[in-house]
Amino acid sequence: RQMMEWFAPFKDHPLFGKIGNLDYYSLVENGPAYVFDDDKIQKSGIYGGFRAQDAVDDNLELLESFAKLSGFRAFFQQQQPYYLSLTEQFQADTRPENIQKWLESQFPAKYQSYKVFFSPLGAGKHSARMYESNGFRESVMFISGPNRYEKKSDSVSIQAIKLSRSLFTEIDHAYVNPVSDNYAEDIKLALPELTSWYKGGGYNTPYATFNEYMTWSVFVLYALDTYSKEEYRFIKNHVEEFMVSKRGFYKFKGFSDELTRLYKNKNESQTVADLYEPIISWLKKN
User: How many Å from the N-terminal Cα to the C-terminal Cα in the chain?
Assistant: First the structure.
């Protein structure tokens, strides 16, 4: 609310006339690749960028002008206690170290660093990137802040579960996708047409559709191992409803149930990564 009130006097700035037409991801993702040097915005020297289209670079003068006119940097410093509280809530609710430990027990990938960017103004558009430099591997995610899940109709534990899900289903792309790469041709053959599997949108290839089925189903497996029976039942029902009704992955329940069956019946030495062949065989039959 404070941020929206702070924005109001500057709504006629030229930046706002343009921002509605900018691609969300190309703006938000590329932001962390820049830093302030006094009133100038410059590349950070750490990241070259996260999207090929760089809406920050394309609008550098407008962003600098707005930051100076609005006193944004002073406002940002004043709000540090609020941002810190969100960071602490995020850590407590998601327990990222537990997620990392579980994923690394189930997949071959290993990462030395997780980096999560979120904003109190985030609107549910999430994404993930993986980087490697001189043997150092980092998983970078962009998600909504904890405040997005603060609903009076939900208990504190349910809010924490929904936040954890938003993190998990981005972070596990860094583990699921590399294994999927080994089965790309098999996945393509298993999903010769997508219309009965996906309503259409941002995942219009067999590979992309499979990875969404897999990443969300893997969260259900994590929930099975991590949460209470009551919480697991909520998560299973919530994820199935969300994936089928809201996202249009029509056969998610069947896919997730089969992966869960395979997981429960695997050998002790097997991991989720070992279940790719049988779940792809199931795809071919369905």
Answer: 48
